[in-house]
Amino acid sequence: MVSDTEKCCPRCGHTETEVGEISTTGGGLSKMFDIQTNSFKVVSCLNCGYSELYRDTTSGTSDIVDVFLG
């Protein structure tokens, strides 16, 4: 069992994550010309695969992992 002070996956309680990136197109002309205007960080639990997307503000990934793990 994970203690209340330890950060963990909200789904399974595992404490290890992986951070990836995805980019998506918007609407209108950016979609027509396949211009990727939206960027997101993807934080995934290494145990169960549960993932959350966070808009990339280029401030670093450590803050995003802290949000994912609570």
Ordered list of secondary-structure elements with their pairings:
Elements: E1 17-25, H1 29-32, E2 36-45, E3 51-55, H2 61-69
Description of the molecule:
- It is a single chain.
- The protein is built from 2 helices and 3 strands; from the N terminus they run βαββα.
- The chain is elongated, with a radius of gyration of 15 Å.
- It has helices spanning 29-32, 61-69, and strands at 17-25, 36-45, 51-55.
- Mean pLDDT is 76; it is low at 1-5.
- A 3-stranded antiparallel β-sheet has the order 1-2-3, covered by helices on one side.
- With 70 residues, it is of the alpha+beta class.
- The chain has one domain.
- A hairpin with a 5-residue loop joins strand 2 (36-45) and strand 3 (51-55).
Q: How much of the sequence is in beta strands?
A: 25-35%
Number of strands: 3
* Average pLDDT: 76
| Class by SSE composition | alpha+beta
Count of domains: 1
The percent of residues in helical segments reads: 10-25%
- Morphology: elongated
Along the chain, the helix and strand elements come as EHEEH
Low-confidence stretches: 1-5
Features:
70 residues; alpha+beta; 3-stranded antiparallel β-sheet; 2 helices; disordered N terminus
